[in-house]
């Protein structure tokens, strides 16, 4: 569905995407993870055929975006990070008007709008204007609108940003349904649990390059341990303890209020720490997550 080799995007002297290779298979959910400025959005815009590549090779749906941009865009669905709905139109009108942009007949877009409102659980709000809808409803409508042309490839930029947990899970359910119907998904997200839930494979980008690639399970296995032991202390009290526990784990990370021990068995490490007289304010044993991988590969420093 998407094939990129040594893909580059420059803005003047700034190189936003620095020679990445990406292969997205038909029917899978593929994710781009990375901090701000990693190059995710620039890559997505090139795939969406709205921003030309500077160098390298790129095909989308087997076509060259430089020569076949309109044909590609006609077969794509795009969910932008910010909802850009027509707020003074109704839910139904948003879908019907958008469908007409693709040259679909009025009768077809009427049928399609009804199907998509049911899919997004918005049928009861069909004739309500968009402005007073909740954030979750607007997001579901934006996703529904992106499907009006029956796309083969759906690009989703931060699909659940700002939603409460119930709305996020409803959006996830709808995306699972699309994938089961054969739609290929490409997702950018800052939510690690979302990436674990949705993505068959993903890449972690940092500084315009790909730092790692694989399934969520593979990345956790390669870059983390089975478990993490968190030892929490009052501020400033963890430093003297580091020397007592630094040999109890494969990797130790010291934070302002806690020590993280990456280990195969958190309970065994905790028992040994207690035997050495370590008395944290609290302790927690948890499984390693994609967030641990993400922070290890991209660091904890805030990137603006």
TrEMBL record:
Keyword set, alphabetical order: Antibiotic resistance, ATP-binding, Cell membrane, Membrane, Nucleotide-binding, Translocase, Transport
Protein name: Lipooligosaccharide transport system ATP-binding protein
Database matches in SUPFAM superfamilies: P-loop containing nucleoside triphosphate hydrolases
Topological type in the membrane: Peripheral membrane protein
UniProt family annotation: Belongs to the ABC transporter superfamily.
Record-level GO BP terms: response to antibiotic
Lineage of producing organism: Bacteria, Bacillati, Actinomycetota, Actinomycetes, Pseudonocardiales
Domain ABC transporter: 2-232
GO cellular component labels: plasma membrane
């Amino acid at each position: 569905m998407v094939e990129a080799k040594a893909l580059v995007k420059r803005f003047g002297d700034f190189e936003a995407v620095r020679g990445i290779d990406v292969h997205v298979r038909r029917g899978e959910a593929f994710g781009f993870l990375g901090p701000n400025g990693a190059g995710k959005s620039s890559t997505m815009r090139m795939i969406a055929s709205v921003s030309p590549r500077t160098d390298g090779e790129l095909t989308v749906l087997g076509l060259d975006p430089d020569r076949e941009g309109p044909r590609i865009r006609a077969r794509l669905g795009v969910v932008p990070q910010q909802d850009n709905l027509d707020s003074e139109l109704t839910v139904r009108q948003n879908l019907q008007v958008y469908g007409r942009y693709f040259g679909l007949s009025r009768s077809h877009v009427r049928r399609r709008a009804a199907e998509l409102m049911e899919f997004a659980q918005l049928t009861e709000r069909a004739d309500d204007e968009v402005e007073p809808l909740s954030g979750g409803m607007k997001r579901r409508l934006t996703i529904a609108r992106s499907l009006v042309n029956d796309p083969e490839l759906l690009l989703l930029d931060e699909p659940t940003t700002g939603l409460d947990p119930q709305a996020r899970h409803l959006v996830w359910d709808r995306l699972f349904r699309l994938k089961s119907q054969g739609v290929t998904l490409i997702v950018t997200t800052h939510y690690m649990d979302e990436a674990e839930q949705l993505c068959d494979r993903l890449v972690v980008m940092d500084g315009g390059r790909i730092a790692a690639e694989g399934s969520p399970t593979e990345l956790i296995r390669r870059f983390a341990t089975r478990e993490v032991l968190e030892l929490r202390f009052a501020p400033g009290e963890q430093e003297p303890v580091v020397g007592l526990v630094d040999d109890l784990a494969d990797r130790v990370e010291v934070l302002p209020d806690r020590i993280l021990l990456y280990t195969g068995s958190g309970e065994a490490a905790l028992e040994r720490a207690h035997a050495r007289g370590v008395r944290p304010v609290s302790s927690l044993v948890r499984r390693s997550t994609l967030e641990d991988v993400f922070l290890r590969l991209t660091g904890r420093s805030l990137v603006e």
